[in-house]
Amino acid sequence: ADFPGQSTAVIANGRLYIMGYLGEGADMQEAVACFGAESGKRLWQRVYNDFLSDTIYQRYATSSATVDPENGNVYMQGTQGILAAFDPDGKLLWLHSLMEEFGRLTFPNSRTASPLIDQDLVITRGITANWGAQGPAADRFYAFDKKSGQLVWASSPGDRPKDNSYSHPYLG
Hints:
The structure is a single chain. By secondary structure, the protein is mainly β. It contains one helix and twelve strands; from the N terminus they run ββββββββαββββ. β2 and β3 form a beta hairpin.
């Protein structure tokens, strides 16, 4: 398939989900796509403008899609800060612009987290702009209700060790 990118493919329920990009320069768009795992046929894709990121897609890995084993829904976070949920057929369930809503920043090497599913939550992280006592920038985790997309909780600056900056969320 002509779908360049550096994310890791995820296979679930006979389908392959992957993040990639289309176009060049100012027309570059980032996408999540679903292919038949055996046929390689593209079943659906959702494309979002890379309106602010200066990611070098040919050099750095981006986040990977996450599939909920309970319901087959697909979650993605793009380098431009779009966090979205889709049903297995690609229908948009909810979407957040983490950049607009939470002040998420972007970096040239795509420090973008792959979402993590924990029970009824979708957990991700982002580096955010902050001022004053919170410092110039902070890495925060966000947990959203996986069905409604409503924010359930967010970590505060300093809630995590500095040596784990830019890591993907994980459950210990």
